[in-house]
Specification:
It contains 14 helices and 2 strands. With 368 residues, it is mostly helical.
């Protein structure tokens, strides 16, 4: 990477990601003391591996990565099929258990679906940018999206599937899709949501929505986790109860406290100030990623950055929303903070791609 490219990089994006990781590690250290900090120690290892992976991604031209995406996409489709035949973990067949590491192909697939969609969109728009609005071309893109989404729903993992859809929607808007399709989609959602709820959604999914609307209806069953989460957040106050001192966290009432409900741990033990700072950091990170998408040297870079923005937005809003009782619980991790090797490495691959794209910008073009 040349000196000019290094100067172009939006280093603040990496700094924010590392700050979020450090906050997550502090919370994990406190939340795992009864288990001799086992998950904390593993997360430290994944943090190191993630940084190395990010640097590798940074130094490979993203154009080459996009060109290789159809092959990698095919590999992950095979993995998403194979994982359906593994033993269920917490009711979902989402992981390959490889001893020290539980590999979740759905997490990594998010990146390669974004890259393959970028490949397909740039091919479609090669001669005419408006070709993206042809129904046959849109069907191709929906097929690329639909195969992994259906396989992930089969696991079942509705949260990850939703992340795919949000990322694709933002990518299509970036590509210049006609507004009529956006309006039609919005109308279809309004029509199909009640139909899907009544005739397609399995009972356990309906139960989650019902508990989200009224968790007190089953306080010792399905509503237990969200009630404990809200108690933890409320108990934290302005500055928190202190590390190792959170009642819900340390007494085992909050579960799973290292993954889905890590934000509740932070709110209880570090307080509103730190929790609010996390939201501000995410907003800054997403804003900077959008800026990279806007100033990218080409459409390919804009599409990749837009897809990554979609993933980050969904995960942030859904995770924080669900622990506060504002959204249904879906098991979506909080980027850079929740425990999980697959999630952390995936997030840093995304950061590597964003930094890669930002390094290729010609900043002088935007100077008058």
């Amino acid at each position: 990477m040349r000196k000019r490219e290094l100067k172009n990089i939006e280093w603040s994006i990496l700094i924010v990601a590392i700050i979020l990781c450090v906050i997550g590690l502090v919370a994990l250290f406190s939340a795992t003391q009864e288990a001799e900090h086992d998950e904390f120690n593993k997360q430290c290892v994944w943090f190191g591996i993630s940084l190395v992976t990010m640097v590798i991604v940074m130094f490979i031209d993203y154009d080459l990565i996009v060109k290789a995406s159809p092959i990698i996409y095919g590999i992950f489709i095979i993995l998403l099929i194979a994982v359906l035949f593994t033993a269920p973990v917490n009711g979902a067949t989402s992981w390959f258990d490889i001893g020290f590491f539980s590999f979740q192909p759905g997490e990594f697939a998010k990146i390669f679906v974004i890259l393959f969609l970028t490949y397909a969109i740039t091919k479609i728009q090669k001669n005419n940018k408006d070709d993206i609005n042809k129904p046959t071309r849109l069907l191709i893109l929906f097929a690329i999206l639909g195969v992994p989404v259906l396989l992930i729903i089969k696991q079942p993992d509705y949260g990850t599937a939703a992340a795919f859809i949000i990322a694709t929607a933002i990518m299509l808007i970036t590509s210049g899709i006609n507004k009529k399709y956006i309006i039609i989609t919005a109308l279809l959602i309004v029509i199909l949501v009640p139909i899907l709820y009544n005739f397609v959604l399995p009972e356990h999914a309906k139960k989650r929505i019902e508990i989200f609307l009224n968790p007190e209806s089953d306080p010792r069953g399905s509503g237990y986790n969200i009630i404990q989460s809200k108690l933890a957040i409320g108990a934290g106050g302005l500055t928190g109860m202190g590390l190792f001192k959170g009642n819900q966290t340390q007494l085992g009432f909050l579960y799973p406290k290292t993954t889905d409900f890590i934000f509740a741990v932070i709110s209880e033990e570090m307080g509103f100030v730190v929790a609010c700072s996390i939201v501000i950091l995410y907003v800054y990170l997403i804003t900077k990623c959008l800026y990279v998408a806007k100033t990218s040297k080409d459409e390919m870079g804009s599409l990749i950055a837009s897809g990554i923005v979609g993933v980050f937005i969904f995960h942030m809003v859904e995770n924080i929303g669900m622990v506060m009782g504002l959204l249904p619980i879906t098991g979506v991790p909080l980027p850079f903070i929740s425990y999980g090797g697959s999630s952390l490495i995936t997030n840093f691959i995304c950061i590597g791609l964003i930094l890669n794209i930002s390094s290729k910008r010609q900043k002088t073009i935007f100077v008058k």
